[in-house]
Amino acid sequence: MSINAVLKVGKVAEVCVCYTGNILTSSIYNADYYQSVAYEVCKTGAHIIAIKDMAGLLKPLEVVPLMDALRAGIKQALGDANALPIHFHTHATSSGTIATTIAMAQYGCNIIDFCTASMADGTSQPSLNTFVAMMEGGTGNLTHSLTHLLTHSLTHSITHSLTYSLTHLTLR
Fold first, then answer.
1. Which domains does the chain have, with CATH numbers?
2. What helix, strand, coil percent values describe the chain, rounded to 5?
3. Rg (Cα) of the chain, in Å, rounded?
4. pTM
5. Which candidate, 42, 74, 94, 152, has a CA 20 to 30 Å from the CA of 160?
């Protein structure tokens, strides 16, 4: 098993679970399913469990039941609901993912993937700049200031525009 190979060489094993349906309405991908998957992941010796929401399907109202199911499976396997970090990866295709990432952060998700504003949204990850702006003044511990992110995003946007222009020149 690939997890055993990773563990054997002393590296971090992150197991990914695809989010493919509505946990509130699915007869298959429900809370029991995710609890069972989290339990099995823990039993493999993995260090991190990742939720891969590749189509931006997870909605904010589904966050609490999903996180509760994952934490219950982790607690069942390891005795502590917080013994294994949860990593959330999504794509902004549904345009609702910024609300979902805020809900994930507020409910204790350990790792959430974002992208700088100049490259965010669409088929990319949600904007870190937007997330930081939405979370300012809250109880979370943000490590980036919006001003710093805007400067970085502007620099990246200019570089991206120049690169795009140079690669689309037409020789006559």
1. 2-167 (3.20.20.70)
2. 50, 10, 40
3. 19
4. 0.81
5. 94
